[in-house]
Amino acid sequence: IAWSREVIERQVLHLTELVDDLLDISRITRGTINLNMERLEVSTIVGRAVEAIEPALMEHQHQLSVNCPSEPMFVEGDVTRLVQVLGNLLSNAVKYSKPRGRIELGVRRANAAIEFRVRDYGIGIAAESLPKLFTLFSRLPGGPAEAQAGLGVGLALVRRLVEMHGGSVSAHSDGLDEGSEFVVRLPTVSCGLAAAETLVGARPPGGG
Questions:
Q1: What is the spatial distance between Cα 171 and Cα 71, in angstroms, rounded to a whole number?
Q2: Rounded distance between C-alpha atoms, residue 180 and residue 125, angstroms
Q3: CA gap 20, 29 in Å, rounded
Q4: 114 in Cβ contact with 191 (< 8 Å)
């Protein structure tokens, strides 16, 4: 009974995630999605995304290293959607890495932008697959069964949400079995005294 319950719970969760992604794509396509824009501390986004992915990291025995500067950095955005963006990229890194793999999440300031870099050392991406990577319903051939069970909407959703925030997302891989890196760039904003009351409280990566 316990085994059956666990199987049912996993399948229900998986189905729920698929339906949610499809609904999000539909809302974006129809222009009905609303963003709750706030001035956000970058570590808030990182901390919540890492917290959400921790169960998957433990299940696959992956090691995640996070490099987020201690200096305050801010972006303007919807915290739920930006956590979703970073969480999707981390989830992909988990799925396309072999057990006990290494995943890196780095954040840095790049001129007038903040860069979020998700790097894995998994199966990599063939050169011919890179141009269509962010296309709706596109999936990498030859990936693990867990990844193939998806509908191929996660990266398309990531791109559209990032673009709605005035940013961009790109992917790079040296080829099959060479891992991959995804980079999200969002415009940075300054934190003046007048904006202090609108700040979302920061939480350290993995914090409670």
A1: 26
A2: 7
A3: 14
A4: no
Q: 3-state class of 192 per DSSP?
A: coil
Residue with tokens 């995804």: 182
163 vs 186: CA distance, rounded Å: 9
Given this model, what pLDDT does residue 150 score? 54
Over the range 95-123, which residues count as b (16 or more CB within 10 Å of their CB) and which as e?
bbbeeebbbbbbbeeeeebbbbbbbbbbb
Could you tell me how many residues make up the chain? 208
Token duo for residue 109: 């300031």
d(CA 123, CA 177): 4
Q: pTM of the entire structure?
A: 0.78
Direct distance between the N- and C-terminal alpha carbons of the chain, in angstroms, rounded to an integer: 33
Q: CA–CA separation, 164 vs 169, rounded Å?
A: 12
- Name the amino acid, one letter, at 204: P
Residue 201 — very low, low, confident or very high, per pLDDT cuts 50/70/90? very low
List the one residue out of 32, 29, 42, 111 whose CA is nearest residue 73. 42
Task: State pLDDT tens for residues 18-60.
Answer: 777 777 777 777 777 888 999 999 999 999 999 999 988 998 8
What distance in Å separates the CA atoms of residue 144 and residue 13, rounded to the nearest whole number? 19
Chain centroid to CA 152: 14
Q: What is the distance between the alpha carbons of residues 2 and 189, in angstroms, rounded to a whole number?
A: 50
